[in-house]
Structure formats: structure tokens, C-alpha cells
Automatic annotation (TrEMBL):
<protein>
    <submittedName>
        <fullName>Competence protein ComFB</fullName>
    </submittedName>
</protein>
<dbReference type="InterPro" id="IPR019657">
    <property type="entry name" value="ComFB"/>
</dbReference>
<dbReference type="Pfam" id="PF10719">
    <property type="entry name" value="ComFB"/>
</dbReference>
Amino acid sequence: MVHNYTEEAVRRALPDVLQEYRLAHPDTCDCQRCREDILALSLNQLPPHYVASNEGTIFTKVSFDQIGGKAQVIAAITNAIKTVSAHPRH
Ligand SMILES: [Zn+2]
């Protein structure tokens, strides 16, 4: 089975980044549709990092380093949140 570490990293980081963003911008929507748009937009900004594995991916901090660092992931998610909240499709 092929996994995309980038997707795993974004899926894990997204709820925290969105929650943090909503503290400063309470009007930001977090419905399922907006979350999926944010996920897709974030992934379009980040390089994929595929790994083949027979078992479930063991995800550690190392994975963030493999895809350019956690800061880059958070920046991509934040950009995506801004774009989606400016033009929500829900
Ligand atoms: Zn929404």
C-alpha cells in the first residue's frame, strides 16, 4: 500500500491549526466541506512524499522533517484556511 506522508501530516495538523486560527478569527467556518477544501488546498501547496508500506504508517515527528518541516505544513494550512474562508463553498 502506498501512503502519502504529506497527506497524513496535513490531516493530523489541520484540526489544531484551524482551532488556533479560529481563536483569532471566530467567524471561520469549520464544517466538513470547508475542512475538506482546506485539506485539498493545503495538499496542492505541498510536495507529496510517498512511501510504500505493508502495514499502517508509523507516523512520527520525523515525517514532518521529510516533507520540509512542520512550519511549512502549518503555513500551507493557514494559507488554505484564508482562501477557503474568503470563498466558502458550503
Ligand atoms: Zn463551511
